[in-house]
Prior knowledge:
Blueprint (H helix, E strand, L loop, with lengths): L9 H6 L4 H13 L1 H8 L13 E4 L6 E4 L4 E2 L1 H5 L4 H4 L3 E6 L6 E5 H17 L7 E5 L4 H13 L2 E4 L6 H10 L4 E5 L2 E3 L2 E3 L1 H14 L6 E5 L13 E3 H7 L9 E2 L3 E7 L7 E6 L1 H14 L7 E4 L6 H13 L3 E5 L10 H9 L1 E6 L1 H10 L2 H4 L8 E4 L6 H11 L6 E3 L34 E4 L5 E2 L3 E7 L9 E2 L3 H9 L6 E9 L5 E6 L3 E4 L2 E4 H9 L4 E11 L3 E10 L7 H14 L8 E4 L13 H8 L16 H8 L6
Parallel strand pairs: 4-17, 6-7, 6-8, 7-14, 8-11, 11-12, 16-17, 16-18, 18-19, 19-20, 30-31
Antiparallel strand pairs: 1-2, 3-13, 4-5, 9-10, 14-15, 15-24, 21-22, 21-23, 23-25, 25-26, 27-28, 29-30
Helix pairs in contact: 2-3, 6-7, 6-10, 8-9, 11-12, 14-16
Family: Belongs to the ATP-dependent AMP-binding enzyme family.
EC number: 6.2.1.1
Pfam families: ACAS_N, AMP-binding, AMP-binding_C
Amino acid sequence: MHDELYPVPEATAKAALIDNDKYLQMYQQSIDDPNAFWGEHGKRIDWIKPYTKVKNTSYDYHNVSIKWFEDGTLNVAANCIDRHLETRGDQTAIIWEGDDPADDEHITYRQLHERVSRLANAFKDNGVKKGDRVTIYLPMIPEAAYAMLACARIGAVHSIVFGGFSPDSLANRIEDCRSSFIITADEGLRGGRKVPLKANTDKAIEVAARDGAVVDKVIVVKRTGGDIAMKEGRDVWYHEAVEAASPDCPPEEMSAEDPLFILYTSGSTGKPKGVMHTTGGYLVYASMTHEYVFDYQDAEVYWCTADVGWVTGHSYIVYGPLANGATTLMFEGVPNYPSPSRFWEVVDKHKVSIFYTAPTAIRALMGAGEDYVKKTDRSSLRILGSVGEPINPEAWIWYYDVVGEKRCPIVDTWWQTETGGILITPLPGATALKPGSATRPFFGIQPQIVDAEGKELDGATEGNLVIADSWPGQMRTVYGDHERFVQTYFSTYKGKYFTGDGCRRDADGYYWITGRVDDVINVSGHRMGTAEVESALVAHPKVSEAAVVGYPHSLKGQGIYAYVTLMEGEEPSEELQKELVKWVRNEIGPIASPDLIQFAPGLPKTRSGKIMRRILRKIAEDAFENLGDTSTLADPGVVEDLIENRQNRA
Ligand code: 6R9
């Protein structure tokens, strides 16, 4: 265990917005009187009609309801753009760095205003109205940010689908939120490779149509100029639509609790859930966390390497930074193209001060060797950040020593799609760090550790992580299924929000996230429900049954281990293994590809027929000696076979 304390570096202490005393004081205020605290900090954004009510939330299992600033009105795009025009019109809002190092662009707040307004009008010209869902299936190009903000400007609700998802996954998301509008590109470009986004969209629309979901319009950005089919009457070129549209689009007045976006995320059961975030509380929370967690100061260049297809891209590439009038960098490419120096070359090229990435990227770059880092300058860097999964102390120390040259604090930020923004994190000028710990709660956040029965545990302890009360950035519901929202998050421990994560608290009150305790696995920082991969596998004609678990993977954090039982008469083979991997890629997307597939004549089941995943997890982890109680198994013999034929780990 690395319990060594890394104090706030001296230069950071001098420059930072707040120190530890201030943190403790503000934290106490936020817990003692949330109405006063958030009533005050809600003013950090512009309201059309100011709120008079602040917090109106209930975690009561029978009546879960979450509202913040409910009688206020505002517009998110006006907050992210218009209100900066007077003071920052000519400041760069977005630096775009293309996949090819020769491609980049600076977009000022004034340019952003015109482009977003035109696209907002183009949406309207094509029939999009307030409250309609718009699916965004775009690569990391500025148009993705324009599309988000254009939706916000006219009160449409965006649903971004990560460009790595398959046509079927895209279709499911289109159907679930009944979205009749899509914005996509001809092709994406990552690491020199093309991604057929428009062709995928065409397939998805066909699939959705079979289930009765009709897509009226598809707006297509020309990114690569690749050869694609355009369907007359349905498909519209982006450049033509915005050119024809007026640059004048007054922002729609929205209620604080009107939906801003839906983002699908994996859970332990069933299909991905449409996590719904609303307007006022979300923006207050995203902008406030962005400022304090990254210690963002005027004119600094800030870079979050996430994709806008994930929540991190929503809150910390687009909404948080732009609400704060920051310069935010958007990167189309990947960490190791053209070489593993790319991140640091981009840092030098654009003088990045704050850099926020995922442990999986750090581990991969660490594996490539420190020469790739050391040949770059990086003197502009001031703050480093980590998100997406627990960061192992080795990677943390490498990030701190080699990348940040012991000068830059690392903010290890724990949060979720559901939480809208960061909940547990160091603050650069306030928190002494421990490698691998997300440290302490942000303002207004009351973490608790509970045992399996829901009893709160005090002091240094380990158990399941819950949050005792609401904060403004919290999701409001599962789109179209409030009951599922209540069941998933408020039924395990009544009266508390259950995170699905395990957690340890040490004697200093620091939190250490230990990973998911449900059937969600975290592959390279991407959430996958094991149930999703299982249903993809059993959809294959040769597969009769499948069980999927995570196992420790040196680069990805967790890898996907699939146990597969074949149909009567089918023979296991290496070829079939490969075919099944390909099958899952096609069904869900490359991020869901199983790393290891083991053919199993039988799966360990209880007498009532439940698959005992605990045992499968242990076998995948090579931890045979502590399989635990196997006495409830219907046929204990299957376990021996599984152990004998276990697949080698990466
Ligand atoms: C923001 C994001 C959420 C899950 C979460 C947890 C894991 C995220 C973490 C972390 C340890 C961190 N997670 N950040 N675990 N330390 N700093 O990643 O959202 O995609 O919804 O994933 O990711 O397990 O529950 P999302």
